[in-house]
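::Encoded backbone::
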Amino acid sequence: MKDNNESYCIYPGSFDPITNGHINLIERGLHIFDKIIVAIANNMTKAPMFTVEERKEMIRLSFANNPESHRIIVDSFDGLLVDYCRGKGVHVVLRGLRATSDFEYEFQMTFMNRKLDRTIDTIFMMTGMQWFFVNSSVIKQAALSGACVSGLVPDIVCERLQEKIKSIKGKKTKPKKAGNKADS
């Protein structure tokens, strides 16, 4: 898959949903790498709001008008990140850091990955200042509570979030069919 003359990295995550912080990191990562594989981790321990296919589509659509979109590959994987990296022939993982709490988690993951495969390195980039407080969990929580998340996520994600929330709330508020008292 990988052209040996091009530099690749893998940017893994759940991207449930992708935020403007993720977008910013990918765009800045393209200043360093020829291609970025945005790899959606299919984490069975999490209960995602969006399916993997929905997340892939939102990521692709988020970059549809970006002239560098041909340098962004959207994929998904199951299992260990190091196995996915080996399979793609990529030895660099890109990760974003927002705060010291991110560092603690990323530090542990990086060293576990290095223990499993010494050929894989992790590059950390600081999240853009305007996105420091943004993460997918906060976005979902705010949107579910009725807050407008426009400007924090790509427009297509904002639309899909609203559709998904209507669907979720519609399922919860459907009235149960009452039995006919005459039949009792």
The longest strand covers residues 35-41.
